[in-house]
Known about the structure:
Blueprint: H1 2-17, H2 21-28, H3 35-40, H4 42-48, H5 54-66, H6 72-83, H7 97-115, H8 122-135, H9 141-154, H10 161-173, H11 194-212, H12 218-231, H13 237-246, H14 253-263, H15 281-302, H16 312-324, H17 327-331, H18 333-340, H19 346-350, H20 379-383, H21 388-391, H22 423-431
Helix pairs in contact: 4-6, 5-6, 5-7, 6-7, 6-8, 7-8, 7-9, 8-11, 9-11, 9-12, 11-13, 12-14, 13-15, 14-15, 14-16
Amino acid sequence: MRMGLHLRCLRKELSTTAFTTTEVLRKVFCPTTHPSELASLAEAATDVVPQLGLPQTVAVVKLFSQHGVRHEPLMIGCFWKIFKSALPIESYEGDGGLMQSFAACTAAAFHTMCSQGFVHDPQLLAVGLGRCTECAAHMTFPSVVDVYQAMKDYDRKFFSLAEVGLHSESVNEQRRPEERDDDSPTLFSSQPNLVDVLCGELESRLVAIGREAHAQSAHDLERLLKSLAVVGVSSGSAMVALCELVKPMAICAELLLSMLTSVHTIHARVVDVLDHAGDELDIEAERTELVKLLTDKLLHEGGTSLFRNCNWKLVLDYRKLFEKHPALSEDAPELWDAVRTVRVSHKYAVGSNGERHRLGGELFKNRYAVKVKPITTSAAEVERFVPPQFKTWRGPAVHNNRHKTPKTPRRVAFGVQKISRDYLKKKRRKFTPSVW
């Protein structure tokens, strides 16, 4: 009887704790699922990932990263599944839609991997860079922006398969002699920089997208310019492509400020230091054309009176940009005239004397909880600190000093003192005492 009860309870517990694939996916993708509950489902989702397709796997990665749930076995398993998945087989009469969706999934996964900091595994990073390089020719503009933003978050100038070889050698030394893989010593001696290879493919794709002259999102262009400010460009053709992308766009004043700030920090990326001539004239010329195109588009849509009714902080930010980059006033003189002629209150233009920063560290922490006394304006609070002898004091105007003869007579103004009968007699006795 007791054994049967235990078996029934055990069967009930197993039925409540074990989830099927459908239940796990339904709970994971439910919009009302709390992040803490999502973290508890990570173990079950790790077992479900091998059964998912490529778009569902990318959706799982995005969902967990957006909610801040960092479960490394799940995330790394998803990344390996996405980067090692087979390429789709395109039909001859197809338009490349399958390959574009595959490239979009790869770019989204690579962006999530770099933004969340999963770059400590050289093998996974090498596979991700290689797969993005392979799919770069089929990427759309948002996918290119995602990969560029991933390279901005990665923020490294060099990565080659030699690092993977060094990592595998360190792992190989920990194995037994019969399990070691003895590779050739010259296998990783002349490996190319995968960062330069990927950036070159992305620039080629960016030039091709610019030639298509399709309308793109202004927000994606802003993200791209911020990424290029960190990654850089290798030639002026990428700047020409940016000019082609800007032409059909509608740009507001706030967006233009962010774009101009990023455009002036785009630099030339040096691929080969020994073969670099240091000539950036083509990039500077195309940068000037891009600045003129951006400012002309804004002033053509809003006119010179665009900044008169806008926020004062935006006007001051534009002035700071012109102060930081003096060449901008030569490239966009109409924008400079529109910004500098707006009247801004002096208290906003001058600003505070300086931000007060409290020094950090254990040395400057308060050891005691000191209660700060509040500032009060009532007289009752001030009366407590006044000595009692001052409370009974009255001023000289209160007393009648006419009938008193002080030792030191006070000076009386002319016409105020009362003239007595013997006034002249007293004066004579004072000045000529020998006569009187």
